[in-house]
Amino acid sequence: MENYLMYVLVAALTIASPGPGVILTINNAIQRGASNTFSGIFGIATGVFIVSVLSATSIGVILATSAVAFTAVKLIGAAYLIYLGIKMWQAQAPLNTHVELKDKSNIKCYLEGLSLTASNPKPILFFMSLFPQFISSEGSYVAQFITLSLTFCLLVIIIHSGYAFLSRFAKNKLQEPKGREVLNKVSGSVFMCFGVGLATSTK
After folding, report:
1. Looking at the whole model, is its pTM more than 0.85?
2. pLDDT tens digit sequence for 74-116
3. CA distances to 117, 175, 192, 201 from 189, in Å
4. What CA–CA distance (Å, rounded) separates 10 from 12?
């Protein structure tokens, strides 16, 4: 495999860039417990792996070449982002200012992270353009592909865990009802903007 360290750097910078997954992790870290937060992170990582696998199959080719298929998946992903945004916007702050929200199970947080990533077709195109740059024709394609995919997933877990850890420091300032309300409004607005941006974007 060629330029593995360069791949790690590119992948890390991509993952660290603020996006729906990062916003979801930060929101969970501040408003929920560690268990919910890491369930969401593992869901995001699983979604990334699924997307990377799809990018190596005929499905990735179809999405890259078929405007209808790409648009259909894109609109589904956009609708889901807007739905999450509306839910966050409408969320009410608890009266007890020192109680973490516990209304979500770990499975639900995991599926939320999974759906958030897997419903967006753009990462498929990203992987389709990224992987060929770092796969050597002299080695096993499958082995190199698995290595690159698992590396990306591991980086997702590490970087998102870092975001979650740092977000906990801001937790005390956001435990008051007003702080939670602002966080919900900002997070919800960001998700809805991502959804609208995805819906109106082109390849």
Report:
1. no
2. 777 678 668 777 877 776 554 344 444 455 789 999 999 999 8
3. 18, 20, 5, 18
4. 6
User: pLDDT band at 194, cuts 50/70/90?
Assistant: low
End-to-end, the C-alpha distance of the chain in Å comes to 28
86 in Cβ contact with 164 (< 8 Å): no
Rg (CA), the chain: 18
* Residues with Cβ within 8 Å of residue 71, at least 6 apart in sequence: none
> Which stretches within the chain are classed as H helix?
4-16, 20-31, 34-55, 58-65, 67-90, 106-118, 122-130, 141-169, 177-200
Rounded to 10 deg, the angle between the 141-169 and 20-31 helix axes is 40
Answer for the pair 51, 127: CB distance below 8 angstroms, yes or no: yes
Distance CA 126, CA 141 (A): 18
pLDDT of 175 over the 60 cut: no
Give whole-number Cα distances, 84 to 72, 95, 172, in Å: 19, 23, 24
Question: In this structure, what token pair is assigned to residue 84?
Answer: 């999450």
Residue 47: closest CA among 159, 133, 153: 153
